[in-house]
Amino acid sequence: MTVTVSLFQGPENAGDVDANLAALDDAARSAAAAGASILVTPEMSVSGYDIGDLVLERAEPFDGPIFEKVSAIARSRRVAIVYGYPERSHSKLGGEAVFNAVQVVDASGRSVARYRKTHLFGELDRAHFTPGPELLVQFDFGGLRCGLLTCYDVEFPETVRAHADAGTQWLIVPTGLMTPFEIIATHVVPTRAYESQLFLTYVNRCGTETSLTYCGLTCAVAPGGTDLARAGAHEQLLTVDLDPAGLQRSRAVNTHLADRRTDLYPTGPSRAEQETDR
Fold first, then answer.
1. CB-based burial of residue 37 (10 Å sphere; 0-12 exposed, 13-18 middle, 19+ buried)?
2. Measuring CA to CA, which residue among 147, 135, 151 is closest to residue 189?
3. How far is the C-alpha of 266 from the C-alpha of 253, rounded, in Å?
4. Catalytic residue status for 92
5. Maximum Cα–Cα distance across the chain
6. φ, ψ of residue 196 in degrees (nearest 5)
7. Per-residue pLDDT tens for 172-186?
C-alpha cells in the first residue's frame, strides 16, 4: 500500500507566527484535497528561521500554543503534519535551552514524534540553539518506519546511514537551504537516498528572509536516487506516492547495505574527541 505525501515549499513571504500558521492551514487543506495523509513543511516553518533574537521570543514548550494550533489544523483537515519551531526546554546540562525542533502530529492532533537538530549550522544556529542530544528519532506511518533529520544534519553521511541501520525507510528532512548551496539539494540529497537505500523527502523554504535567499528545490527522492518530484524556486505544494514495495525492489538490486565490510571499517573517537583528550 502506497503512502501519499504532500511537501509544502513555503510560505514564500514568511511573516509572523499567525501568518505562517494560516499558510500551513491552506497547505493542509490542499494536501488533503490531493489525497495526502501527511503534510511535511520546512525547517522552522511556523516561527520563521532567519529571524534573529525573535527566535527566543517565539520559543515555547513542545506542547505550547503553536502545538495546539497545529494540532487543531491536523484535526480539521484530517491530515498528519510535520512542522518546525523553536522549542524551549531544559538542557541535560542544567538550565533552560532552545532547540531547533521538528514535531509530528497525526490526523487526530496527537504528537507522535519530536526531533531536535543535532548538527548546528554556523552562527545562524549556534547563536540561538542548543544542539539536540538524540540522533535517531523514528515513528511509524502508513506501513513505513520514518525518521527525522533537519537541514544540515543530512549533509553528514553518518547521520543517514545510522538511520538506515536503525531501520528507517523514509527519512523526512525539513530544511532551510539558502543560495549558493543548491548542490546539497541537487546532488547530496539524492546521493544520501541512494547510498543508504531509503526514501528521502527534503522540504525547503523559498523566497527571502532577512539576510537569506532560500533556493527552494524541495524534492522527494526514491531509494534508487531518482527524483519522484522536485519543486522550483517558488512556493509550491508537491504530492507524491511512496511505495514500500519499491523500496524492497531497490534494496534487492542496490545491495550496498548488505555488502558492507563492517569488519574492516575503523571505529573510534572523532577528531574533536581526540583533540579534547589531548
1. middle
2. 151
3. 27
4. no
5. 59
6. -110, 5
7. 999 999 999 999 999
Per-residue burial over 160-195, b = 16 or more CB atoms within 10 Å of its CB, e = otherwise:
bbbbbeeebbbbbbbbbbbeeeeebbeeebbebbbb
C-alpha cell at 8: 509544502
State residue 89's pLDDT score.
92
Active-site choice (43, 60, 155, 235):
43
Catalytic residue among 69, 117, 155, 209: 117
Question: For residues 169 and 242, what is the distance between their CA atoms, to the nearest angstrom?
Answer: 10
Q: Counting beta carbons within 10 angstroms of the beta carbon of residue 244, is it exposed (0 to 12), middle (13 to 18) or buried (19 or more)?
A: middle
Give the total residue count for the chain: 278
Residues 6+ apart with CB under 8 A from 276: none
β 96-105/111-116 pair status: antiparallel
**Could you tell me which residues are beta bridge partners of residue 237?**
8
117 catalytic residue (yes or no): yes
Q: What is the pLDDT of residues 221-250, one digit of tens each?
A: 999 999 999 999 999 999 999 999 999 999
Prediction pTM value: 0.94
Question: Does the annotation count 155 as an active-site position?
Answer: no
Count of beta carbons in the 10 Å neighbourhood of residue 26: 16
Q: Which of these is catalytic: 60, 146, 151, 215?
A: 151
